[in-house]
Write a structure and sequence with these properties.
The protein is mostly helical. The chain has helices at about 10-20, 30-35, 35-40, 45-69. The N and C termini lie far apart (about 65 Å). The model has no long low-confidence stretch (mean pLDDT about 80). Keywords: Membrane, Transmembrane, Transmembrane helix.
């Protein structure tokens, strides 16, 4: 079953023009000029290292307890 939308020749030509335009580095994308784009992420950057350290500690503990028993 073909699910593509049919385009008029004018729409297809316009789409090809938009796709084939080279990127304009002199004028960056609008999101780069927005203040929230320049702010550092406020996620949880410490969460992944914490999870890794805890996993290594638990595995180390289980390994030590398993060998002594």
């Amino acid at each position: 079953m073909d699910t593509r939308q049919s385009q008029t020749p004018e729409e297809e030509l316009q789409h090809l023009k938009e796709v084939n335009e080279p990127e304009d580095f002199a004028h960056p994308e609008p999101d780069e000029t927005q203040p929230e784009a320049r702010e550092p992420s406020r996620g949880l950057p410490w969460l992944l290292p914490l999870v890794i350290v805890l996993a290594v500690a638990v595995l180390g503990y289980l390994l030590v307890v398993g060998m002594s028993g």
